[in-house]
Amino acid sequence: MKIKEVADLVGISVRTLHHYDEIGLLTPEKTTEAGYRIYSKENLELLQQILFFRELGFPLKKIKEIIHAPTFDKEEALKMHRSRLLNKKDQIDQLISTIDKTLLTMKGEMDMSDKEKFSGFDFSNNPYEEEARQRWGDKALDDANEKLKSKSTEELKEFQDKFNDIYRKLAEIRHEAPDSDIAQARIHDWFVFLNAFGNYSKEAFKGLGEMYVYDERFTKNIDQFGEGLAVFMRDAMAIYADRLGEEE
């Protein structure tokens, strides 16, 4: 579809689609020699995701980080959108009820308590944004990369040596059960190592493990230490993260 057709179908402006392209949020499948942007079915599916995130109050920068993360799962995102929109619907119903009661109070037909006057208002931060960022975002990776940039050549070599040592030790036991004591002990070393220069919550740690298998670039690099290591680490990291949650 051409850009004007997409704009008419969705009900947004051509200028908005131009902006999405310019910032790398939604890039058309191709651009003709004449300069016409052509959108594919996959582009439309991604646009739908973008608009759901926008409906839930996400800024464009956050949406771009999330939908282009290697671990982003479209089906899971749709389920989460549905859940949050139902919550939003409940809040809107509460606000409508507050308005109706206020009108009745103004007419002298009922009395509202001070608490009832503010029922339905919610000024807290968007919890879904943090949930999505942890699930699909790459904030932990961004933070880690920034810290690495500040290290000296000697510190970077020490980091690389430690990194390789942990991976070799994990590769040695990759045929063990991911929930075995030795597997969990060595995954603990990995968790501690990552948090020495990054900021990995249990959710981010688990998401990182999923990315090891989801993104073939990670899988290829990790499996250089031993075939099947990426899958083993993903499973062991998930178990470790779940156990951390149980301890809280």
Automatic annotation (TrEMBL):
<dbReference type="InterPro" id="IPR012925">
    <property type="entry name" value="TipAS_dom"/>
</dbReference>
<dbReference type="InterPro" id="IPR036244">
    <property type="entry name" value="TipA-like_antibiotic-bd"/>
</dbReference>
<dbReference type="Pfam" id="PF13411">
    <property type="entry name" value="MerR_1"/>
</dbReference>
<keyword id="KW-0010">Activator</keyword>
<dbReference type="Pfam" id="PF07739">
    <property type="entry name" value="TipAS"/>
</dbReference>
<keyword id="KW-0805">Transcription regulation</keyword>
<dbReference type="InterPro" id="IPR009061">
    <property type="entry name" value="DNA-bd_dom_put_sf"/>
</dbReference>
<protein>
    <submittedName>
        <fullName>MerR family transcriptional regulator</fullName>
    </submittedName>
</protein>
<dbReference type="InterPro" id="IPR000551">
    <property type="entry name" value="MerR-type_HTH_dom"/>
</dbReference>
<dbReference type="InterPro" id="IPR047057">
    <property type="entry name" value="MerR_fam"/>
</dbReference>
<keyword id="KW-0238">DNA-binding</keyword>
<feature type="domain" description="HTH merR-type">
    <location>
        <begin position="1"/>
        <end position="69"/>
    </location>
</feature>
<keyword id="KW-0804">Transcription</keyword>
